[in-house]
Amino acid sequence: MNRIFAPFAAVVVAIGLSQCAPQNNMQRDAGTGAVLGAGAGAIIGHQSDHTAEGAVLGGLIGAGAGAAVGANKDKQQGR
After folding, report:
1. Contact predicate 70/29, CB 8 Å
2. 0.90 cut: is pTM over it?
């Protein structure tokens, strides 16, 4: 479990720190969605003994949803 969790935690921290750079709404919301989705996916996946798979799937779904929300915000702001 620790062999999977440690690299995953490093990726989550790296994504979180990347949010410090100036970005448009789509980029920022995609990163936020990925982090939140990965966390939620890991929690849900842990319930069925598939923590890593849940984290990856949750991160992908969260990134897609966050990018869609951010793109809509950018469109409304005329960026």
Report:
1. yes
2. no
